[in-house]
Recover the amino acids of this structure.
């Protein structure tokens, strides 16, 4: 299974995917890394791993539609089976989402459907939640709204700051994203209309 990874920043999730893809038993390979920001550190991670890295800079396009069309063109030139958003900080057009329907994944740092959007760690703290976490889900036209594939839960500890909580969540991100991609590569998980199915069971 060939996986294209889209990033905007440091790319620690990308690194977890690269590491999982280099093992003997790996079920997938990372065939391309594409960033909308030329300064994203994840590009360096890709190059060091010998993976083609490219930039489609959103600032060079007059609107979202033309940016997304350029992005589709770049992604499709690598013919991936799966497209993975890993800290990719652009909202995608319905046209883009439809183009990759059922083969587009995102990771979101909250227990969806709680806290769609930004500042999830602060919002969990503000709400006094005792548990927080992360979700891998199929991407649909609803922002952070598509069917979930995997979640990991972490405790919220007394004295937590958003940064401490983010660290705890990120350690889980780095485990469940490679896991979810492996399930997809094995053909065990798929998107039905508005649900995910894993090993034949509805999630
Ligand atoms: C992660 O926390 C992810 O959940 C969110 O953006 C962050 C990306 O981090 N969508 P990194 O670039 O993978 O280090």
């Amino acid at each position: 299974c060939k996986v294209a990874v889209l990033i905007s920043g440091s790319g620690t999730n990308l690194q977890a995917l690269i590491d999982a893809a280099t093992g003997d038993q790996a079920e997938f390979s990372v065939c391309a890394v594409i960033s909308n920001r030329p300064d994203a550190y994840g590009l360096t991670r890709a190059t060091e791993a010998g993976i083609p890295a490219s930039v489609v800079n959103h600032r060079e396009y007059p609107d979202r539609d033309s940016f997304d069309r350029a992005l589709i063109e770049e992604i499709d030139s690598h013919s991936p089976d799966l497209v993975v958003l890993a800290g990719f900080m652009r909202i995608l057009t319905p046209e883009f989402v439809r183009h990759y329907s059922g083969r587009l994944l995102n990771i979101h740092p909250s227990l969806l459907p709680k806290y769609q959007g930004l500042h999830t760690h602060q919002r969990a703290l503000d709400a006094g939640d005792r548990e927080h976490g992360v979700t891998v889900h199929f991407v649909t036209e609803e922002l952070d709204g598509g069917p979930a594939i995997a979640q990991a839960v972490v405790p919220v500890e007394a004295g937590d700051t958003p940064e401490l909580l983010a660290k705890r969540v990120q350690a889980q991100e780095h485990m469940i994203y490679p896991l979810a991609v492996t399930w997809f590569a094995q053909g065990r998980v798929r998107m039905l209309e508005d649900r995910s199915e894993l090993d034949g069971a509805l999630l």
About this structure: The mean pLDDT is 97. The two ends are 23 Å apart (CA to CA).
